[in-house]
Amino acid sequence: MKRIIIAILLVIMAIPVADAARKRKKAGKVKDYVYTDAIYNFKLTLNEGWKYKVQKEKETSRLILSKVDYGIPPEYQSAPDYTKIPRMVVAVVETNMSAVEFIDSLASESFDSDQKKELTKEFEILNVLGGSGFTPEDLIVRGRGGYEVNGVRGGEWEGEVRYTNEVAVSASSIGGKRVKGSYGGYIVALKKDNTLVLFHMICEYNYFDEIKQATEKIINTLKFE
Q1: CA dist list (Å): 40 to 93, 156, 187, 196, 197
Q2: pTM confidence score
């Protein structure tokens, strides 16, 4: 009887451990600056000087990257915390749409879907279409076109969002100065079969060209196994 009770207790004790292990499962892993996705079987080579966070296995966003050292616009030299840190999100969806059609659906004011709602949480350049204090008039589309990496075809969309920030001159000051600026961002979508890998980057527009070049270097390493 004691053996049965001990066996039951061991099983009960093992359940939380198994649940915790399931909760800890990640979307992929990074080794030697190479990210390998656990479900969608693609690889990306990351840049040095960028922090990364691997998301949970079942999440749409798979990987989030943020630049460690980045430029501060002149207007924010006295308040650098107002600077938008350069950030790239890697996400994956399953869809019958083409890559270009899917990007257009994200940028459309009238189109709505659960996938779009989920992606807009992380794709900050599109927040003008879902509130967050911006209006659609703040968004300027800078370009769209095709994109191809290692035989995988897709599309690219580029935009700019104008903003106005009230910046405190110092911690003890009352009021502050009004700073006008803009964020730059782009989305790249690459599709293999029904798997669409999406990349979203956002940063201060002052440094957009530099950050775009750095993040495209990552995108251009995409390989499906």
Answers
A1: 10, 21, 19, 10, 9
A2: 0.84
Residue 220 phi/psi, 5-degree rounding, is: -75, 0
Question: What pLDDT, in 10s, does the model give residues 134-173?
Answer: 565 678 889 999 999 999 999 999 999 998 888 876 655 5
Token pair 């599309």 in the structure block, residue: 155
85-101 confidence digits (pLDDT tens): 999 999 999 999 999 99
Decide: 200 and 123 in contact? Cβ < 8 Å: yes
Indicate the fold that domain 2-224 takes in CATH: Protein Transport Mog1p; Chain A (3.40.1000)
- According to DSSP, the residues that pair with 43 across neighbouring strands are 36, 223
SS3 41: coil
DSSP string, 152-212: EEEEEEEEEEEEEEEE-SSTT-SS-EEEEEEEEEEEEEEEETTEEEEEEEEEEGGGHHHHH
Closest of 196, 125, 118, 111 to residue 154, by C-alpha: 196
